[in-house]
């Protein structure tokens, strides 16, 4: 019927309460596309031509926060869960960006959740991409410079083993940082930004063609002529 009507791609969104129909849909030629807590999306490409249905999301987004106070101490944590737990490694606060959340907002939230420290977003100072990192998906990881607006630490008991302000020299002297080229480089970028010798990406709230507001990230230092 769909073929006679000239349809090429068919989508079926099955609510969780109709999960009993999954087997029938698969036997009819449908394949899984993606799943959410309350539904499963299935698709079927009908003609004998290359499938041009858009793929599921290929990336997840995460943030790391570089927060330094006037005493040149950086805010660091030890995780109680995950790959770094139990190793005595002091690292920057990190976490995933929630659905519908801006990068700049996520960085501030993660720091508040993990350490209790209030901060203000300054810039995205660097980002990296790695593949097959999370359920075979790629990851975009943004390092953000944040300015502290409070200093008394209240760690997140459920996920953080310890948190402290650490002298930047002591943080950089950790074997974990010295021997990891990426972390060493990111720390040097953050320190360079703190010393006023590096410019990252600031934000401006702008309207899209759909009249929705979204953050645009740009190099504010070199944008004076625009």
From TrEMBL:
Keywords: Hydrolase
A GO molecular function held by the record: NAD binding
Cited SUPFAM superfamilies: Nudix (SSF55811)
Boundaries of every Nudix hydrolase domain copy: 58-190
Coiled-coil residue windows: none
Pfam (any one): Nudix_hydro
CDD domains in UniProt: NUDIX_ASFGF2_Nudt6
Protein family according to the UniProt entry: Belongs to the Nudix hydrolase family.
Protein name: Nudix hydrolase 2 isoform C
Source taxonomy: Eukaryota, Viridiplantae, Streptophyta, Embryophyta, Tracheophyta
